[in-house]
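ok here's the first one, seq then struct tokens
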Amino acid sequence: MELILIVGLVLLAVGLGVGFAIVLRRLREIEQSRANDQSAVLLNQNIQGMQERIDATTKAINERLDRAATVVGQVHRELGTMSQIGTQLTQFQDFLKSPKLRGGLGEQGLKDMLAQALPAEMLRFQYRFTTGDIVDAAIKLQAGIVPIDAKFPLENFNRYLQSSDEREKTNYANAFRRDFRGRVNEISKKYLLPDEGTVDFAVMYVPSESVYYELVTNDKFRDLYDHAAAEKVIVTSPATFFYYLRTIMVGLEGQRLNRMAHQVLTTVRAIQQETHKFGDGVRVLGKHITNAKNVSDSVQSDYIRLAEKVDRVLQLDAPDTAEGLAVGESQPTLRPPVPEPDAQ
């Protein structure tokens, strides 16, 4: 745009210069032919005024051309800087072509996100199982260990995106499908170890939003997402990782509460059984107490009858016995014991 403006201004200046040159030439011819004419003086004055205006216009055009040249110089410098940035980006892309290096960057990104979101005591990086397998990260929760893998195969997927030939795209897509399924199966086999305290699922961290988008929306790869779910592997991306993580933690906390509620219910049922046994014992004890009271009442009645018989025998008149009794002495009488009040 700036170049077009400069060219237009240059052409305008040239046109004006040529036009004014023609006008001046014509005026000189008229001046020579009419040297004695009175109007030549006025014409010269007009020509002088026009020359002054032309000079002012030319000066303004030159100043604009100078400013335009300055702007063009700045644009050229900026274009040079952008070219250097583009070269550096190309070199950086070539630098990231190494799968091992790209995987290391993905692991570092995962580590930074986890360190910002969770306390250090819940995190373990490069966690080793007793089988010798090492997972990139592990989250220790009360429900168990959540393994997280950040090694994702991107080579064939990048070739699929860059290729313009349909046959090549199909071949690269099939290769990517094999890579993805193999990685999911490996995660499911290596890291889902309930005997070592892991939960019954693992997390696959995909460090590329474009790959995750294709997995979710592209019909060619939709079955891969379903395959991961069937193998109990949750696929996440940098934008969705924390949402999945929060959902997982809430779900695991719900499971823990359910287990605690089940334990409480089991304890209450055990207490209920013990209460029934205690009630049976109390009822047996009550029966024994009732039987003891009945026996006590029966013994007391027998004792009263026996005492009455003894009293009647002692009240019989005996001459020898009556004479031997002292004045004021009364004959002993058997009395039944006073029963104590029943225990409540």
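and now the second one, same deal
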Amino acid sequence: MKNYFAAALFMAASIAAAPAVPVYIAGRGGPAAAVSQEGAAATEKASASKAASEHTAEAAAVPSEFADEPYKVLDAATGEVLSVPVRDYVIGAVCAEMPAAFPEEALRAQAVAAHTYAERQRKRERSSPTEELKGADFSNDTSKYQGYFTREQIQKFYGDKFDENYAKVTAAVDEVLPYILTYKDEPAIAAFHSMSSGKTESAENAWGTAVDYLVPVDSSADVSAPKYLDQKHFSRESLKYALETAFPGIVLGDDMSQWVQVLGTSDSGTVLKAQAGDKKVTGSELRSALALRSACFEVSYPDGEAVFTTRGYGHGVGMSQYGAESMANDGSSWQDILKHYYPGCEIGVQKKSP
């Protein structure tokens, strides 16, 4: 999925002429089980005073102009292009990307981010088709695109709690289904991640291209999230193998404590510059090479091994899912959450194409 977000930065100009009207981004490891690790955007925190009854009233009547054209989803396993109704897709994406145990307002915020992602990707494919998608808007390959579960996969994933969890997610989706995040009348890049370092990261630091609304904002509640701090230990042999595999031709000296050195970090704690052997690399490259939970890390070398201590989980850009959970628990609405993590964006109805 992070591949999409990085590529989307360079596609922003290409879809500038496409119409959109404003009114509104993975516990551990796998989809939903621990919250999508790559999945993100940011906003100034807005008013938290709107009552749940008002939210329900707003969503009760789906605007007649709502764009409900089914998505075309390539099944990576079979090669078949499936026609998936918008509602079914957003439900499947929320189930895949956020634990159903999260509060309703966080689930609603995730639903809007997931819907926004899908709309932006559809526009992108219409303006510049990807050959491997075979005419689809995106695929269910979660290494490249947003997570998505079919109803059958959701049943298997939730098991005995299917009825309860599915009802909770579908209710959250139904309340916000018409809405997407927009910026300058276009679907925003609704990046999201599991948890930040305590402050989200900018798209510029993470991916090299600045985006007005993907900027650092406070997400200090993340420090209390499960496995916020994590350590990964490497023996001399395993670190050598990982570095030589990731960086062909790298020269490593005899002193292991010099193999990886942090040279510079952002205000959010992301490693921007590092030395790996004789090579200058980024924190993102080291994260990928060493399968770290984030690019916000420190390295130490006790007792003949290398220890990488990470903070947060994911790329750190956009909405922190654990931050959204905390805001919801503190009484913030889904609108408040989105406005906090995606500053400058608006909440809008994705209208039908003329």
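notes on #2: Residues 78 and 327 are 40 Å apart (CA to CA). Residues 10-62 have pLDDT under 50 and may be disordered.
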